[in-house]
Structures are given as structure tokens and as C-alpha cells.
Amino acid sequence: GAVVSQHPSWVICKSGTSVKIECRSLDFQATTMFWYRQFPKQSLMLMATSNEGSKATYEQGVEKDKFLINHASLTLSTLTVTSAHPEDSSFYICSAGGGKNTEAFFGQGTRLTVV
Amino acid sequence: DAKTTQPPSMDCAEGRAANLPCNHSTISGNEYVYWYRQIHSQGPQYIIHGLKNNETNEMASLIITEDRKSSTLILPHATLRDTAVYYCIVREWGNKLVFGAGTILRVKS
Predict the structure, then answer these.
(1) B46 part of contact set with chain A, CB < 8 Å
(2) How far apart are CA A35 and CA A46, in angstroms?
């Protein structure tokens, strides 16, 4: 299947700093990518839909000014967690693909720990 | 909100078939049934999807009832590496995937 790569796999940052997570589709072009967050022992929660060349669409309750999404090319979307706090510590996962009658592919996830 | 209902957990003996049920009684005509699984601390892995016909691939089989209100994912010969959380999701073409709680499958030797 298609490959979606996230970077970094894990990151530790200090409270108040910003962290950028990259999501790349390696062998296909993705006009749409999705960002999820997963807390321990919970399911994936959709945060936002990243649209190439336009603004992201955020799910209800997700702060767009805190979680900045940029989808500047057909193979790259980035999620920036701004002014991170310990409660932002989570597993962040992106997905790409999933167009007409096709499956979506997921990155390996990024473990963010804010100290 | 997730549109599916799955049992919270199931056990299966290694080498036996694992049958994971999913109810999706409100599924609409243009929604597909997708199955993904997530092994601990990894991103979800696609397994299979279908619209109304039964489907089979190298990983699993998907059996969808005629009224499409429920389905069963079958792992024909479960191994210890199949231990994971299995998610059943209904989705229209190109729409976002909304995950429910899933089923924790424990394959035991």
C-alpha cells in the first residue's frame, strides 16, 4: 500500500514552546490529509482536515490558533502545536488518501511530550 | 460521532479464526464499511473495505449482511501479531474517517 511518513516519531519539548510535525505522502499526491490525536487508552480523535492550497477545516472544539495546519504541497502537511502545555502531550497521527473508493493510509504517529 | 457498534474486547486462540462483529444499522446507501487495526503505539493499518458484496484479501475477509446493517471481519488464522484494536468505520467516498472505540482483540497461545 501507499506510504505516509511522519516526522519526528517522538519529541519532547518545554512548556510554552512550539512543535512542528510533518506528514508526507511518499508515493502519491494527497490533496487532503487528516490530523488525529490520541490520548492513552482512547480512540483516535479527528482534529482537522488539511486541504492543499486552502485553509484547514477544524473539528468542533479544536483550537485553530493553537494547532496550526499548513498544506503547502500535494505531498506535505504540517501540524504546529503552538505554546505547548503538558495537556497537549499526546499521540498525533496523520492520514492521507482515502479518495473515491480507496483506503486512507496513516503515518506511524508522533509522540509529543510537553514538560 | 462514530456510526458503528463493536464489542469492547474479544479473545481468540492462536491459529483459529477470529470473527469480529460490527453493527452499523444507520448506514446509508453510499457509505462503505472500512476496517482498520492499530497495534500499540503505531498508526492504524488498513485491512479491508466493502460496499455490499463480501470481500477478501490477503489479510482478511469481510462479510456484509444483505441489509448492510452489520458486518463481520474474519481473520482466518489468527496469530499473536494480530493482537490489536480493530476499528470498524462507515464512510462515504473521500470523507473523513471517524473512529469509534473499536474492539481489542487478544490472540492467545
Answers:
(1) yes
(2) 6
Place of cell 456510526: B3
Q: What is the residue whose three cell numbers read 490558533? A: A65
Instruction: Output the tens digit of pLDDT for each of chain A's 115 residues.
Output: 678 999 999 999 999 999 999 999 988 888 889 999 999 999 999 999 998 888 999 999 999 999 999 998 889 999 999 999 999 999 999 999 766 556 889 999 999 999 9
Reference B108, options B13, B15, B40, B16; nearest CA is: B13
In the sheet with A76-81, reading across from the earlier edge strand, the strands are A4-7, A19-25, A76-81, A67-73
**B101 contacts in A (CB within 8 Å)?**
43
